[in-house]
Each structure stands twice: as structure tokens, then as C-alpha cells.
Amino acid sequence: MRSVCVYCGSNMGARPEYAQKATALGTRLAREGLAVVYGGGNVGLMGVVADAALAAGGEVIGVIPEQLVGWEVAHTGLTRLDVVANMHERKARMFDLSDAFVALPGGFGTLDEMFEMLTWRQLGLGDKPCAFLDVEGFYEPLAAMMDRMVEERFLHADQRRDLWHGDDLDALLAWMRAYEPAHASKHMDGKRRKDLR
């Protein structure tokens, strides 16, 4: 593992703990020698993660669509900033640049990007670890919703177990480094598709 993609809000959120965790994550990834790939903005938690990693001597690569250069205020102090045509190209570029994906608290965009990676993995288009790094229980309702998906047979239990959720950075990094992907063929062969109907 050489690089980690971080999805997070372009706002700071209502609690100081969100920025504290973003700072801790950016700093830790840099100190572990892992490049940070993120959305390229210098505002909100996005900017906090990037600045923390840069301050710790890390490599930070931003990927931002042309439309959002002004909205999210593109960070001009990064190791590298890729400006792409649209959100679809952004997701594909971030996927190509990253060996793992972590979501800090955020809004629609954060969830959209992470769930697209989870869907790609489910379909066998990728086999990279995905994790929700929680802060003050922010993602607990979402984790409960994913458990409900399993209970209602819209999601296989193996796919739910293949996703990390927690608040401990040591545990997160250990899990990502030990990650062994379960391929889509295992999850979604004919029998299992039938079982989920």
C-alpha cells in the first residue's frame, strides 16, 4: 500500500472533533509514508487533511473537476493537482491513483464517492479496501443501515464484513495492510444472486 484516498466534507462540520480527526489522519498517513489522494480543495475537512499531511512532509495529490475549482477553492500548495473534466473522470483518476479508500465525515459527495467505490468492488471492478473512519458516532446510523441491508437480503453478509467501520487509526491501518479482497465472483455467483432475491 503506497497511497490512500480520503473522502471528506468541503465543510468543517459542527464539531471540532471532525477537524481533529482529519488532522490526525493526514498526519498519520504522511508519517507512514503513504501518499494522500483527495478532492483537491483547500476548504473544510478536505483542506485540513491536505494541510496536515503536507505539514508532516507527506505527498498530497488533489483531483478536482473544472467546475469545482472555484467552488471548493483548489489547493495551490499540493505536491500535485490534477484538474479533470467532470466528476466521473475525478472518480476514475482517484481510483487509479489510490490503493485504499477512507471516508471521514462529509455530505452527499463523500457518500457518493465512497459508495461508488464499494459498488465497483462489488461488481469486480476493483479489489481495494474501503473504510469509514468514524468521529463521535457520525457513521453509526449508516453502519446500522448497511446491517439492515443484509437483514433484508439486499446485501450479502460477506460484502458487509468486507467494509471497515471504526474510529481507531491504528486498527484502520492494520486492517488496510492485512486486507485480502473477496472477489465479486465469490459474492455474486448465480447461487448467491438467487439467495438475495
TrEMBL record:
EC number, UniProt record: 3.2.2.n1
Top-level taxon: Bacteria
Cellular component annotations (GO), alphabetically ordered: cytosol
One protein family per Pfam: Lysine_decarbox
Reactions accelerated catalytically: AMP + H2O = D-ribose 5-phosphate + adenine
Keyword Heme in annotation: no
Keywords on record: Cytokinin biosynthesis, Hydrolase
NCBIfam families linked to this entry: Rossman fold protein, TIGR00730 family (TIGR00730)
Family the UniProt entry places it in: Belongs to the LOG family.
Annotated protein name in UniProt: Cytokinin riboside 5'-monophosphate phosphoribohydrolase
Organism: Noviluteimonas gilva
